Known about the structure:
Elements: E1 4-5, H1 7-14, H2 18-28, E2 32-33, E3 36-38, H3 39-54, H4 70-87
Antiparallel strand pairs: 1-3, 2-3
Helix pairs in contact: 1-2, 3-4
Amino acid sequence: MANHLTPDELAKELNMDRESVIRICVAEGVPIYQGKIDKHLFQAQLQAVGAATAGADEGTEPPSDVAGSAEYRAHLARVLTRQALEQI
Length: 88
């Protein structure tokens, strides 16, 4: 199994679109060297971001109201945390 893949190959293997792969590489500092991406490094960065955002809603007790349920607001905390980490 190849470890260094083109953005198209990596996108196909991980069931993502090519643009998302490139955007994540740029945002997370995963190098694209001679048009290839280290698959294991890319996946490690995805897991690190996932782990960092997984607990973003722990310890919160968001209210439910007409604007959104408590579950939606907890999910939103995870999404906004992930987006904030991507901008750093």
